[in-house]
Design brief:
Helix 1 packs across helix 2. The protein has 268 residues and is of the alpha/beta class. Helix content is 35%, strand content 24%. It has helices spanning 19-32, 51-65, 108-117, 138-143, 160-168, 189-205, 208-212, 219-232, 244-248; strands at residues 5-6, 41-46, 74-80, 89-91, 96-99, 102-105, 121-123, 150-155, 175-180, 185-187, 234-243, 254-264. The protein has one domain (5-264): Protocatechuate 4,5-dioxygenase, Chain B (3-Layer(aba) Sandwich), CATH 3.40.830.10. A hairpin with a 2-residue loop joins strand 5 (96-99) and strand 6.
């Protein structure tokens, strides 16, 4: 049987399709990032727009991650479905995701274990076919040299705390969780910053109710991560925040981007 490969959907639009140009852009953005020195990173919240907009912010998380690769054996990728509606969480039941930098393996055994664990975990490659939010994380992972399989999870209509509790029973100490989410969308820069500051404060304080009332497209997977963090004693740290007005110049209508790391706390 031929392997089931998920081809890139947004290469050439969200990021360069040519490997040399993609590597050059990633190198520039990672070199410019200056995250704080943190150890024991277990999870990241990172943006998923085109690299010219959100890449400099995402680079803060990946530069930090590049110092801790030996600790990671598997990556759970969580993001919101932008293109189709469905109930539950769509599992990307492929053999691999392809990018201009090569193949990223999918942990199909983990996919099967999740599908067997809860009814809301549903193998559904159709939901992943044109989706950008997980794909844009992959070239960063490849460039920093993380050779670990992924578990692609797209959130539809589902109770996020139930998902978080279910994932808590599956995770091992060598798993990394990456939540892909932007923040507010298409406000003037000043308003976007006010909205995003309230949202980020809620995330950093562990206020899931306030997060659920925010405007981040990935609020559902963020709440799932917050539930996981409570279970495992992970502590959030803000690495970087900017709007597309900072990175791309137009402040009339912006999108907010943040990089947040969750690190092992005293109970982790």
């Amino acid at each position: 049987m031929n392997p089931l490969i998920r081809p890139p959907a947004v290469a050439g639009t969200f990021y360069p399709a040519t490997p040399s140009k993609l590597k050059s852009l990633l190198a520039t953005q990672l070199e410019a990032a200056d995250p704080p020195a943190l150890s024991g990173v277990r999870a990241l919240i990172l943006p998923h727009a085109g690299y010219v907009y959100s890449g400099p912010v995402a680079a803060f998380g990946y530069r930090l991650l590049s110092t801790q690769l030996e600790q990671i054996e598997r990556v759970y990728l969580l993001g919101p479905a932008h293109r189709i509606w469905f109930p539950g969480v769509a599992l990307g039941d492929y053999d691999a995701f392809q990018t201009p930098l090569g193949m990223v393996r999918v942990d199909r055994e983990c996919i099967a274990a999740l599908a067997n664990a809860e009814d809301f975990f549903i193998p559904m490659v159709q939901a992943h076919e044109g989706e950008h939010c997980l794909e844009v994380q992959l070239p960063f992972l490849q460039y920093i040299g993380l050779d670990a399989p992924i578990v692609p999870l797209l959130f539809g209509e589902v109770h996020p705390q139930q998902v978080g509790r279910a994932l808590a029973t599956q995770l091992t100490p060598h798993d990394l969780v990456i939540v892909s989410s932007d923040l507010s969308h298409y406000y003037a820069d000043e308003m976007a910053r006010r909205l995003d500051q309230g949202f980020l404060t809620a995330v950093l304080e562990g206020d899931k109710l306030q997060v659920s009332e925010g405007e981040a497209c990935g609020q559902c997977p963020i709440i799932a991560l917050m539930t996981l963090a409570e279970r495992w004693g992970w502590q959030p740290q803000l690495l970087d925040y900017r709007t597309s007005g900072d990175t791309a110049g137009d402040r009339r209508q912006v999108v907010g981007y943040a990089a947040i790391a969750y690190v092992e706390g005293a109970d982790g």
